[in-house]
Amino acid sequence: MGQIVGAALVSHHPGLMQDDDFRVRMGDGADSDLVPGFDRLRAHIDAVKPDTFILFDTHWFTTGYHLVDAGAHYRGEYISDEMPWYLHGQRYDYAGDPVLARLIETVAVEQGVMSKAIAAPTLPRHYATINVVNKLCRGERVVTVSTCQNCQPRHYLESGRVIGEAIRRSEARVVLLASGALSHKFNEIDWVQKHPRIYHETNVSRPENVVRDKEAIALLQQGRHDLILEQWDAKFRPLPWEGFGAHYLQMVAALGGADCRARGTPCSDYENARGTGNVQMWFDVNPKD
User: Tell me: the pLDDT tens digits for 33-71?
Assistant: First the structure.
């Protein structure tokens, strides 16, 4: 019987893939804390020994279906069409888990959820997957899940419940990776930096987004996913979170939805990236106490 052994909210922004000297210059003499945050996350991952990551990708926008990547292996070199001058030359080489991906589709069909498994060698990669794989993967299989853009929050929760059931029917030890930011409103192209340290929260696009992001982080630390879901439409959806919050909603639904009480441990400072609010956070789904 398979199980979810851990979960994480993970930042993937392109600045994290730049060289150390550049990041330190942008940080007014100090690096982004999200970078060592990957090492802190990896320590938690090592402790639970997964064989598979299910990664919720807030850049893989699909229409009509939640898609699950059923490819057996991916190898190549990534360049971003969004910012090719900034994010390029990212080599990747990782295995998928076609058996688990197909099982997710089987459960979706049983439950009447619009989800399909797709296996195509030419299926494009997105940096919400590639950056996280290159920072965190140490040989684990990776199954990427899309953000279906014509969905309401309930649809993401349905997708996550399907994934949780499929994992239980499998033989996999899975860590869920919700790849994306919290609030995700970019600063304008001619925005003037407010704080010399670009990563500082003062540079997040709106003060009210910082307030809401920190409120969410506090609730995540308490394991009060029920309150986040209860207040989703009123407080968090309007910001909005990256990818409609699909990464978080699918992750938490796989963990039990409103019944989930997995407490979040921040593995980095809360930081700005182009106006968006980012944090690395680990969720211990099987606490000892």
Answer: 999 999 999 999 999 999 999 999 999 999 999 999 999
- Determine, yes or no, domain membership for 289: no
pTM for this predicted structure: 0.98
Is 102 a member of any domain? yes
pLDDT digits (tens, 9 = 90+) for 162-185: 999 999 999 999 999 999 999 999
CATH code (residue 8):
3.40.830.10
Q: Say if CB 24 and CB 31 are below 8 A apart.
A: yes
